Amino acid sequence: MPVIDLRSDTVTHPTQEMREAMARAEVGDDQSAEDPTVNHLEELAASKVGKEAAMYVPSGVMGNLCALLTHCGRGDEVVMGDESHIFWYESGGGSALGGLPYRTVRNGRYGDMDLDELNASIRPERSGFPPTGLVCLENTHNRCGGTVLNLEQMRKLAAVAHERGVPVHLDGARVFNAAAYLNVSVPELTATVDTVQFCLSKGLSAPVGSVLAGPAPFIHEARKARKMLGGAMRQAGVIAAAGIVALEHMVDRISKDHVSARKLAQRLSTLPGIEVDLTTVQTNIVVFKLADERWEPDQFLSVVAEEGLRISSFGARRLRMVTHYGLEAGDYDQAVKIIERVLVRVPAGAR
Ligand SMILES: Cc1ncc(COP(=O)(O)O)c(C=O)c1O
What we know:
41% of the residues lie in helices and 16% in strands. It is α/β, with parallel strands linked by helices. It folds into 2 domains: 12-249, Type I PLP-dependent aspartate aminotransferase-like (Major domain) (Aspartate Aminotransferase, domain 2), CATH 3.40.640.10; 253-343, Aspartate Aminotransferase, domain 1, CATH 3.90.1150. The strands form 3 sheets. The chain has a 7-stranded mixed beta sheet with strand order 2-8-7-6-5-3-4, sandwiched between helices. Strands 9-10-13-12 form a 4-stranded antiparallel beta sheet. Strand 12 (312-315) and strand 13 form a beta hairpin. The longest helix has 16 residues, at 254-269. The protein is globular. Residues 59-61, 85, 138, 142, 171, 173, 199, 201, 210 line the site of pyridoxal-5'-phosphate.
């Protein structure tokens, strides 16, 4: 049975063009900066996000962690949204490995933060207070449903930190989706922050890898953090080649995923037992609530999986679907049909 996998855009497989580029890739020892394909990817990536330099890393988590470890010294506090990916899903790496306590600020419905609350979270200088080392933003915002911070919001949030002398890192795992939604260039968005991490392996479909970009001296230092974490690779040109194809050929199609997500969400919103806040469906993520309380979310997920649809859970009856390369309109139609079909059943064990 064919399976429609909407758990994430990370499930995308490399395109044929990527596979060919990988087979052809010229390689060398990247730890000595001798891999021409990695060097090319890093230059290209830096230019695509308007930063001076960039570093290829195996994952988004490692890109964010290298940023935290490089911006901060031991004991510095890192401020981030309470719904942020770094806070929820990155194993507390900055705290565990860097001695960096985390401080959260409430994320609004669309992944934003109140400017006064952000300002209040930055510590004044005082003996006993951990110094604030970094503010992290996230755009698009995963747990808020792929929502987008616009240029004005980015500028204002970053200005709060900068006015207090604190640098800003953007977890821009899906920053290309944010820019496509806003119809602005990625460098316009990232000009507001000091450093940015983005993923090649999500909507851009590369099999592996993320990029951390920022000023050249920062990236020079960040390479030490990557080495310490065991993330410095050797003939990584083999995978970087796919990243180059991703940046050159997969950015323009990203809006198609946004159109698909919107249609999917609209159709879901008509189903009894499902609630969707359509205002949060801005990019390629659809978060919806399983309001039909006869169904336990885990049971619902396993029954739809038996029918050939994979979706993921966000807790509190919230489920997530992500549209991506490799799926067509017919797959999304089929996904809605499966959900519709399952919802009319009586769950096993229900009274
Ligand atoms: C917002 C955000 N940041 C970071 C990451 C981490 O990326 P990776 O899975 O490549 O480590 C993800 C992954 O889903 C994400 O959604």
